[in-house]
Write a structure and sequence with these properties.
The structure is a homodimer of 201-residue chains.
Chain A lengths: L12 H25 L2 H8 L3 H8 L2 H8 L6 H9 L6 H16 L4 H11 L1 H22 L5 H21 L3 H5 L2 H17 L5
Protein name (chains A, B): TetR family transcriptional regulator
Keywords (chains A, B): DNA-binding
Pfam family, one (chains A, B): TetR_C_16
Chain lengths: 201, 201
């Protein structure tokens, strides 16, 4: 329920206006303050609404970020589901899922726009680093039983960002043409080793 | 010697003008036509000089590209040197060399500007893909003794581009703080497997 005490039937016109105002305020504040320092309270203030209404619409700061940036999926839903069966086979599951999402989104992949922003603008890079850190990397690190769990999660991220860059943006021809099974067989063991293997020099 | 038959002592003022004209013409033509379709003859024509003068100054189209884009190093020199001892230990050699170059260049790394261009502009992405393909990936593929050598070279590229993205541009904190030995131990076996390991599903 919206944070209003007046009785209502159906959706009021004001609701979508408030929702849009919150999303606009979120985009502005995330991109200037970063993900970590942008508070729900400040975003609500910018939008002229009560913080409870933000939580009502979006559930959490991560959910608000996902909606504001038009992420194709919500890591707070997806990552726990991928982690649930345990770390055995997690490398192949992560890579297979990522490739499936990329293939389904095709040219309309909004992640490509986010990579472009992060590469061009330090503020956007910080915002992505902080969001990816909380929404994905900290969750993966918490599931890893080995030494240096957060470094391991970041090693995985470096290979996954590299797949997106090399296959979707640079469009290296054999990577672009390879079928998903070939790529899962190539990248799965890399991710698995970063998660559970020895990293000793 | 420049492509001139007049006797000369020292450097003539005209030399640096012609050299700069060639570099300007090369930048313009590489970025519109791509690396593959931009011919030395066409660039020389744009600059109003003889193609032989271009070869005199820069040795090859790859050398011209390296000079025009202000690459910190010339892959036609560096890659054969890294490949010379053979594929044993090549993964660690490649990663160690890359990290050393990144550390030495620091903030002034012109590769970061090239990654930014490639991410933002399809023409720049094509130019990079074609240059990296001929100057680096084809050379690595030619040294690989296993099946699908070019795919293997592209897998390596995807991890190396990912290291640059994650460590230098996103600045993921544990990757950014890790010492070189830790990163060589993490990434060396990945690159080595892409070059010489089994990729079978």
């Amino acid at each position: 329920m919206p944070a209003t005490e007046s009785p209502r039937r159906g959706r009021r016109p004001g609701d979508s206006g408030a929702r849009d105002a919150i999303l606009g305020a979120a985009r502005a504040r995330f991109s200037t303050a970063g993900f970590r320092d942008a508070t729900v309270r400040a975003i609500a203030g910018d939008a002229g609404v009560d913080p409870a209404l933000v939580m009502h619409y979006f559930g959490s700061k991560q959910g608000l970020f996902v909606a504001a940036m038009e992420f194709p999926l919500d890591p707070s839903q997806v990552v726990p589901r991928l982690l649930a069966p345990g770390v055995d086979g997690l490398g192949e599951r992560l890579v297979g899922f990522l490739l499936q999402v990329i293939d389904e989104l095709g040219e309309a992949n909004p992640m490509l726009g986010l990579v472009r922003s992060a590469v061009g603008h330090p503020d956007a890079a910080r915002m992505m680093r902080e969001f990816l850190g909380e929404a994905i990397l900290d969750r993966i690190a918490a599931a890893v039983q080995a030494d240096r769990p957060r470094l391991r999660a970041e090693l995985c991220a470096s290979q996954i960002v590299g797949v997106i860059m090399a296959r979707q943006i640079l469009a290296l021809p054999e990577l672009a043409a390879a079928d998903r099974a070939t790529l899962v067989a190539a990248y799965g063991p890399t991710i698995q080793r970063y998660l559970t293997g020895s990293l000793a020099p």
